[in-house]
Amino acid sequence: MNLDRAVLAFAGCVVLTSLLLGWLVSPYSLLLTAFAGVNMIQASFTGFCPAAIVFKKLGVGSGTAFS
């Protein structure tokens, strides 16, 4: 798995977890979904992604989107 796929998989897990929490626990959990969306939008413009930095430190191989 390369860095791009790891970041996308992590973002998908965050969104699905937030939706599940919003359904089962509290609608305020949907703020996590909003945060994930805003983070993905800013990463598309700036190229800065905190999850990519963490995955790099964990040894995940490079991809093409996050260098």
UniProtKB/TrEMBL annotation:
Keywords: Membrane, Transmembrane, Transmembrane helix
Domain of life: Bacteria
Keyword Lyase among record annotations: no
Chain ranges of the Inner membrane protein YgaP-like transmembrane domain: 2-56
Transmembrane segments: 7-25, 31-55
Pfam families: YgaP-like_TM (PF11127)
The name this protein goes by in its record: DUF2892 domain-containing protein
Source organism (scientific name): Rhodopseudomonas telluris
Lineage: Bacteria, Pseudomonadati, Pseudomonadota, Alphaproteobacteria, Hyphomicrobiales
